Prior knowledge:
Strand order of the largest sheet: 4-5-6-7-3-8
Number of domains: 2
Shape: globular
Structural class: alpha+beta
Radius of gyration: 19 Å
Strand content: 15-25%
Amino acid sequence: xxxxxxxxxxxxxxxxxxxxxxxxxxxxxxxxxxxxxxxxxxxxxxxxxxxxxxxxxxxxxxxxxxxxxxxxxxxxxxxxxxxxxxxxxxxxxxxxxxxxxxxxxxxxxxxxxxxxxxxxxxxxxxxxxxxxxxxxxxxxxxxxxxxxxxxxxxxxxxxxxxxxxxxxxxxxxxxxxxxxxxxxxxxxxxxxxxxxxxxxxxxxxxxxxxxxxxxxxxxxxxxxxxxxxxxxxxxxxxxxxxxxxxxxxxxxxxxxxxxxx
Length: 261
């Protein structure tokens, strides 16, 4: 039996729709498009049905692009890959293209909102900043929900049921105020997992920290893609959700991969 057959025999149900359908394929989560040279960490393969694998194809495109755009480090940046991702976005999701014609005032306001200061020796007009359209949000959020269910499956060794609830938010890795707002999540997630691959140095391309419990059934996780994007996620049982303050944003596993409007 080949590797794929062995994997599906050991993991026969899709972990993204609450085990509602048999797993027919292996889904790499996070997707390879999120990583330089399409080289991601090992042991992040998950059982998926055909629908759940295909449902996030465009979300992966948007997510991978904004990971690359937000991480200009020498270690992770590939100009050719960013250009290819930009072309893919232009052809499939043109409404998600970054806003490149920001005014100097827009750029100063963006820095202020991110808790950053303009370097004294650079004019605001020359700052390499781009705007993120609001239409990007539901795509990144849906893919964050999928990543949350993948981490739940990896850590809890079981599928989050269709009645489980998922909550997620995201920020850019360079957004100091955004990262500051996640300090509560970071402080309560002591277990650190770094994405690795044999014979390949992945640096800070991907890692997460988490906390988990069986009673109540809950997982909290914070995932980071270099300096590109940072996600905070919760996956909880219905009983656990009743005990939490509901500020909105929750979605049932059974509903999380419904295409955005």
